[in-house]
Amino acid sequence: MLSKLGFLTIGLFDEADPRRGHESTLEIIELGERLGFDSAWLRHRHLQFGISSPVAVLAAASQRTSRIELGTAVIPLGWENPLRLAEDLATVDLLAGGRINPGVSVGPPMQWENVKGALYPDTADAEDFSFARVERFLAAVRGEKVTSFSGYQGFEQFSDRVQPHSAGLASRLWYGGGSLRSAAWAGAHGMNFLTSSVVKAEESEDFEAIQLSHIHAFRAAHPDGDAARVSQGLVVIPTDSASADQISRYQAYAEKRTPRTLTPQGPARMMFAPDIVGMSAEIAERLESNAAFREVTEVAFALPFTFDHDDYVQILTDMATHLGPALGWKPTLA
């Protein structure tokens, strides 16, 4: 039975009016809290027209909400200094009263050959984009020593661990993975696991079977076993209160994206889950027949990238009032 219902947004904005897009994202998060959602998650986009600084947006959201958990899905660590990111996240977590759920991943930054001269002009060839980068981040968040010096230098006092330290943040760290290797690594390192609508076709070309195998690999490696937290993220678009125009646009959006779900895509053989559009009862029936969905109690349904603010209001409202209850979820209302 579904116990935690969340949603994920890219925070799309118009280059000519970026503030409006960011304000829309904050308004959507506020709406999510009023509707009883358990969590709101932000995607992370660099050099695109989506949120490039989710930690800053989460800081703003933390001051406009009081209950809903706030996460990132995900921050690509290839763009980040792990120690500095740990400082920022701990600060925001304290301001939010312990509601931040940072999700991260590793690998070379997208468009690496084109961006490395601006991102790492002096160290591009030395940067490590392996899991070791996550380990540095984990150590910093968990309060392990990051320097050999602590004490006083003159009148100034120094700590040997990241400050501020938010004691509960480490238990709310998530890894966003799409392969068996990443799932097992996240489990072995005691993280929570985010599995999305994109996975790597390694042992199968059946999306549900692949995702299920990742969940099993994660929990098999995790100290908490079957109790280890997994959140599934799929694109679902309920239409219970949608207008005829909205339904037409939603169906066209899903149909346009359907061909990529049929076979593995690109050299990495990535598999995409089909978007699910329809009445909440129909969506619930499809989800309950999904083997991977039956393994989780938490979801963060992804909002489509290119819809309007009013569309997101309708979709979230239907999720909270129709789809969630159809899946056994109950809203948390202040």
Automatic annotation (TrEMBL):
List the signal peptide residues. none
Molecular function (GO) terms listed? Answer: monooxygenase activity
> Which UniProt keywords are present, listed alphabetically?
Monooxygenase, Oxidoreductase
Q: Which domain of life is it from?
A: Bacteria
- Residue span, Luciferase-like domain: 23-248
Tell me yes or no: is Oxidoreductase among this UniProt entry's keywords: yes
- List the InterPro entries hit by this protein, alphabetically: Bact_Lucif_Oxidored, Luciferase-like_dom, Luciferase-like_sf
Q: Which PANTHER family match?
A: BLL6902 PROTEIN, LUCIFERASE-LIKE MONOOXYGENASE
The protein here is known as Monooxygenase
